[in-house]
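Working notes for the structural subgroup meeting. M.R. asked for a predicted model of this chain before we commit to crystallization trials. I am recording the input and output together here so anyone reviewing the notebook later can reproduce the run.

Input as submitted:
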Amino acid sequence: MQLLDDFLSLFYPSICYACGSSLFHQEEIICTSCLYHLPRTNFHRDPENPVAQTFWGRIPVQSATSYYYFSKKGNVQHLLHHLKYKGRKEIGIYIGRQFGYELKEADLFKTSEVIIPVPLHLKKLKKRGYNQSEQFALGLASAMNIELDVSSLIRCKPSETQTKKSRFKRWENVKDIFTISPGAKLAGRHILLVDDVITTGATLEACAEALFKIPSIKLSIATIAYALH
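Returned structure, recorded in token form:
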């Protein structure tokens, strides 16, 4: 089997989804060089990091973090483009696992009990075929060994793309579009809400507004990337 894999790799080489280089044997998804050089934030060690500050005075989150910094035309953008638009679901799972091993040991996140990804509207989900944030959540849940809940938070209305919208317009675009399933059993639990990228935090805030209608929850937030302003 290994000989077959090696032969096929001559004609269909596996590539790093961050930089585009061919992967060496035993590398997967992201090459060793990119794993080392991708711009990690280490925000999960700092309770007053920029992601947490995004929500100060807006929603009472316990902790908030992102794995990478996002910059236009950077390698993190390449990763997310493949994940979101090229059907490479495995990227989200892989990154989730890598980050999850760190969050499991981080004082700010290790008490998380259930992971909830930001949901897509059913129409968009059918068109894309999967929710990229759910793939990230799958990896996190696996590494942190905690529950994944994809049914309690519902996007009940479609929304326009947030790209190029102002902060106010982003909030108006997502206001009141999320609701909680009648069957949700989340009271008193510490929820880790996850998404792919945080820019202004409008979508995550809208999700939180719905989640905080559940009695006595604690809420933390984690994303793959934090967009530099």
